Fold:
Amino acid sequence: MARVLMFGVLQDLAGWRTREIDTTSLSALTDLLMTEDAVLGERLSRPGVFAVVNQTMVRTDVILAPDDEVAFVPPVSGG
Amino acid sequence: MVRLEDTPIDPGALLAEFVRNRGDAGAVVNFTGLTRDATSGQPVSRLTLDAYPGWTEKVMAELEAETRARFDVIDVLAVHRWGVVEVGQPIVFVAVAAVHRRSAFEAADFLMDQLKTHAPFWKKEDGPDGSRWIEARPEDHADAARWIQPE
Structure:
């Protein structure tokens, strides 16, 4: 089970911050989330929304191990 | 050094500590960002900053390292709030020490531009019309682009 986290507006849309989800890859996880929730899915597919796997930003599909942590992050705004 | 704080920060105390026993530096530049009471004419009653503890500090430390590599500085401190920040309260404090002022000014300016556009924070403003998530403005990205060096 991968530990999945949502930040910012994605957390509000999803209605949850953290979930344990049984998945094998980032693309499979994203497909599952888009199927479950079309509104969240549309936002996840927007430019500027990225996945962070084990605290490293990824821009391609990756295989996920059971203990991996996957965060979905919208565009940032610090300072 | 970078720090993520979930309680109010005191820029005066942070600056006093930063300049203490600093015989090596001839210049310290500091910046404090505050929560405004309005954005683009829309009233703001409070700001909530979401962060990703662990990754947020990791990216902030990378931005600090980039600042140190790029400018001739002696020390760098960046302290960033997360959680609920009331209007008028500090969100971010940056201080840079250098032998001479020019590199201290430039490094602080650079680090703030990077924090605005790269540090993992997400801002939600509450106002009389409800809540809204806000992103870095085009001006913030234009500011950060000033530092891109030609190939």
